[in-house]
Amino acid sequence: MPARISLFHLLLLTVFVSSSSSWAAAQVIFTDDFTNGASASWGNQRGDWYVHDGVYDTHAPGNSPPTASLVDIPLSDFVIELDINDVGDGGVWLRTDAQLQNGVLLVTGGGGYGGGNPNGGRRFYWHIVTNGNYSAALNSTGDIIQNPGVQDIHMRIEVIGNHYYAFMPGFLMPVTTLLDSSRHSGFAGLYDYSIQTFDNVVITRAVRGDTNCDGVVNNFDIDPFVLALTNPAGYHAAFPSCPTSNADVNTDGVINNFDIDPFVTCLVNSGCS
Ligand SMILES: [Ca+2]
Ligand SMILES: [Ca+2]
Ligand SMILES: [Ca+2]
Ligand SMILES: [Ca+2]
User: Fold this and answer.
1) Minimum-distance ligand to the CA of 209?
2) Does position 128 have pLDDT exceeding 50, yes or no?
3) Which SS3 state, helix, strand or coil, does residue 69 take?
4) Entry pTM
């Protein structure tokens, strides 16, 4: 079995690869808890964003066009985590251009406005924005927000390769995913069309192959990689702030034996190309 041979190669690598063990901080590149106003990195492109009570909100929520405040850091593969309080209609911009004409928009608390209440949405889905035009709602969940307009949620969105994953605590699998090859980089930000507010935004740069999230790819990543491959829940417990997609080295959306050979290639090259 080729996969077993490759695992054997991994074991050999643990013996033969000499590693420079440089500890780097996890690749967190942006945080804001809005304790002292909003970071100067927020662009406040649409909606008149402001901070009150330690959270980020709009004076002018809207969806035509959707409001936006983007973090001015270009991103390709990354994870954004955030708290959404009183979740209603709103969402998270991903890999959008600065003009908001091309990008991906994850809608949180969607599906409510059809009932006339932007605070009543219970679903998550995606839009792909192309030259200012919005796709239909893609890959919608069912009604998974139990108390829209009231409930506070935590979200973790992973963006790697052509794959977008939206996670919520309490769900083992992503609540919804998107496969799209139209965008490779861009900005991340927030969208608000309801009473919901945002807090505790953390953006982490994803590094393929860096399965222990110390910022480098070396043989200290071998054991975590094998753990991610064989025991995803155990991996997430051991490295809770690490993008699980770092182990999806061939970026096909799943972590399996087909990631082993690409991972070995990344190891011997001290990083993935
Ligand atoms: Ca806060
Ligand atoms: Ca709001
Ligand atoms: Ca590492
Ligand atoms: Ca894979």
Assistant:
1) 3
2) yes
3) strand
4) 0.82
